[in-house]
Amino acid sequence: MSGKIGKHIAIYGKGGIGKSTTTSNISAALAESGYRVIQIGCDPKSDSTTILRGGNDLPTVLDTLREQSKVRIEDISAIGFGGVLCIEAGGPVPGVGCAGRGINAAVEQLQDLKVFEEFKPDFVLYDVLGDVVCGGFAVPIRDGLADRAFVVTSSDFMAIFAANNLFKAVTKYAPSGGARLGGVIANSLQAPYAKSLIDDFADRTGSRVIGYVPRSLTVAQSELYGKTVIEAVPHSDQAQVYRDLATFIDRDEDAVIPRPLNGPELKKWAREWGDRIFEVEAGVVHEMGSI
Amino acid sequence: MSHHIEGSRNSCALHGALQVFEAIEGTVPVIHSTSGCGVQHYLGGTRLSGGNDPFGSPPVSSTNIREKHVVFGGGSRLREQLKNSVKVVQGDLYAIVTGCSIEMVGDDVPAMAKEGVDQDWPVIYTNTPGFRGDVHQGYQLALRALIEQLPGLRTESVAVQAGQVNILGVIPNQDPFWRGNLQEVARLLEAIGLFPNLLLGDGQDVNSWHQVPGAALNLVLSHWGEQSARLLEERYGTPSISLDGLPVGTAFAALLLQVTEKLGLDPERTNGVIAREEVRLRQQFARLADIYYRTGFQREFALVGESALVVGIGEFLGKNLGLLPRTLVITDNPPESVQKSLAARLGSIVPGFDTKILFSEDRSEIADVVRTGKAGIVLGSSLEEDVAQDLGVPFLAVSFPLFNRIILERGYAGYGGAAALLEDVGSVILADSLIHSV
Questions:
Q1: Which of A96, A103, A109, A134 to mutate to test the interface with B (most CBs of B within 10 A)?
Q2: For chain B, does the N or the C end have fewer beta carbons within 10 angstroms?
Q3: Tens digit of pLDDT for each residue in B31-79?
Q4: Between A and B, how many CB-CB pairs are < 8 A?
Q5: Which residues span the domain enclosing B46?
Q6: Residue B100 in 3-state DSSP?
C-alpha cells in the first residue's frame, strides 16, 4: 500500500497461545519508548487489547457497524496504557455468520474512517486469530496491509502446526505484495526441550526465532489486574523480555518468505521430536523414582 | 481439469429451483441471498424463454442480504422476510431457496423454515447455492424438497384418482416449450384412460404435489427427473418409466404401448388412439410432400439443445422426416454414464451416417463444431443463429435461450409436437428457398 502511515505488523498464533498478551506487551513497550501505537484485535473474541486498558469494555467495530449507520473513531477505540489506541474488530456470536468476512469488513471500516491518517501511528499491530482458517483471517497479510508478520508459538505441536499454516499463507501472498515473515516468537517456554524444538522448526522452515518468552507467573498476575507486565511490573525480567522483543521488531526489518513443511514432512518432524521428548520425559520419571 | 465456458446457457441451481417453484400456482418463493440472484433470474432466465416473463419486474420475495448478514449471519433477516412474505402474499406454500453467500456463511435455514412451520405457515426450504450445481441440479433439489417436506405439512390424506401419472423431468423455461410439451403428453395419456399429474404449469398447484405419492406411475421425460423418480420409488414404491428424450411423433406410440403394458390398460383402446394419431400425422406428411421435394427439404441438420430435446427432435427429423443428423450438441451436462448411452443412441439415428456428437455448453466450441459440420439447417438456441447465418442456411430456434420467439402453447412433444415441428422446420426451409430463388 503506497503512502502507508507507520509500520504495520501482524502477529498470528494459535488460539490461547498467548499472542494477545505478547502483542499487548510489545505495544506497551513500544509506547513506553515514545512511539505512537495502534493495536487492532482481529479475533471474534475481541479481548486482544483488554490488558492495555484496564479490562474495561470497548465496543467492537463490527458491533458498532451493526447498530449504527455512521461510525466514529471515538465510538470504536479507547486510549490505553502509554497512549496506545486500542481497537477490536469483533465478530459474530460463535456458530453464526462469517468471522473471516467480519475481519475484512472491520479493516475496510477503519480505512474508511481514516484512522491511520488521523492518529498518525509509528506502529500498527494486528493481533490475529492465527489458525488461518479461511481467507478472511489472512486479510492483514494480504494486499500489503501489514509489512511483516510474526508468529507466536509454544513448543506444543498444535501451535507449531498453526505456525506452519501461517507460513503457507505468507508464502502464498508475499509474492504478490503480501506481508513477509519477520520471525517466530517463542512463548510460554517451560519444558527443557522447548527452545531447541522451536529453534529446529524455525531452522527447517527458513525462518528465525526473534525472542524467547519464558513462562511466568508475573504475566498471569498482571493480567488478573488488567495490565501488561510493562505497566504492572516494569522492572521485572519479564518486562525486559518484552522490551527486547519490541526493540528487535523496531530495529530489525528483515523479513523472508518462509518454506513451510508439507504434510508428510511435518508429521515426520513431529514424530522425531515426539520420540526425543519421550526419552527426556522418561528420564525425568526415572530420576523422580530414585528419590 | 477446469476450463472456461463462453456464453453458458445453464444458469445456477438457485434459478433451477426458482423455475420449479414459480411454475406451481400458489407457491411463493423466498430467495435468501443477495439481491442480484433474483434479478439475474429474471434477466437471464425468464426473459429469454419464449416471452413468459412476469409483467414489469421480477415479483420474487428476497432477503437481499448485505455484508452485515454475512458477518453476523442472515437468519434473523430470513425470519423477518418470511414473516413479511406471509403477511403480504397469501400463498399455499412458501419455498425458501438459498444463494451462495448464505451457504458459505452456513445460515441455519432448516431452523428458520421450522420456525415458520411451527407457526402453521406452509414452509419448505432447499439449499441451492450455485456452487452446488447448475439449473438442472436446482430442479432436482427443488423436487427433492417438495417430495420430502410437503408430506409433513399436511396431515389429512389426499384423494388420488386411479391411473394417475406424475410427469417428471421437464424443467420450466430451461425447455422453452415446456408448457406445450406437458399439455400434449397430458392429452395423449388422457386418451388412453390415464390421469396425468403435470405438476408444473397452468392449473398445477400445491395440491397437485400433495397427490404425488398416490400415483400409479412416474413418467420421466429426461435424465433430470430420474433422481426424483428413484426417491418416490423408495418412499412409495411407485414404478416409473424413464425416457432419454421427448417422444416426438411416432415415438410417442412406443411410449403409449409401454405405459399400457406396465399399468395393465386396455391395449385395444391404446391401439385405437395410436391409429388415429398416426393417420393424422401421415396426412400431414402427405400435405407437406410437395414442398418437401420442391425445397430440398431432405438435408443435413445441426441440432443444439438439452439432451431430451436433441434425442426427441433429432430422432424425429432423422427417422421420420429423412433428414440427416450432421452435428448433435447436448448442452445440459448429463453425467458421464448417461453421455455414453446418449452418444450410442444418437450415433445410430441414421445407420451408416457419420454424426458428430458433442457434449458442451461452450458457445464458441458449439459454434465451431456446427460451422465445421456445414449442415443445411441449424436448430438450436438463439446463440446459434449467428453460425447459421455464417453458413447461409435456415435457422430455427428450439432451445433455451430464445431471444426472438414467443412460446405460449407450442410444444414439440407427441403428435401435436410433430405437426408443430413440421410447420416450423418447413417454414424456415420454405422461406430460405424463396430467398435463394429470387
A1: A96
A2: N
A3: 999 999 988 888 777 778 887 666 655 678 999 999 889 988 999 999 9
A4: 38
A5: 13-153
A6: helix
Q: What is the pLDDT of residues A205-255, one digit of tens each?
A: 999 999 999 999 999 999 999 999 999 999 999 999 999 999 999 999 999
Among chain B residues, CA nearest to A97: B73
**At residue B142, what is the residue type?**
A
ipTM score assigned to the predicted complex: 0.76
B105 touches chain A (CB under 8 A): yes
Do B78 and B99 belong together in one domain? yes
- B168 with B225, same domain: the answer is yes
Architecture label for domain A7-260:
3-Layer(aba) Sandwich (3.40)
Cell of A134: 479461511
Does residue B123 lie within any of the structural domains?
yes
Q: Which residue of A has its CA nearest to B68?
A: A66
From the list B104, B122, B21, B15, the residue with the least C-alpha distance to B65 is: B104
Across the interface, whether the CB atoms of A101 and B68 are under 8 A apart is answered no
- Distance (Å, whole) CA B260 – CA B263: 5
In chain A, domain spans? 7-260, 262-291
Q: Is residue A120 flagged as an active site residue?
A: no
The Cα–Cα gap between B198 and B161 comes to 14
Residue A14 annotated as catalytic? yes
Q: β-strands B395-397, B377-380: how paired?
A: parallel
Select which of A7, A14, A43, A227 is catalytic. Answer: A14
Active site residue A268: no
B340 and B218 both lie in a single domain: no
Task: List A186's β-bridge partners, or say none.
Answer: A153, A212
Say whether pLDDT at A139 is over 90.
no
Count how many domains chain B has: 3
Closest by Cβ to A96, choosing from B68, B73, B104 = B73
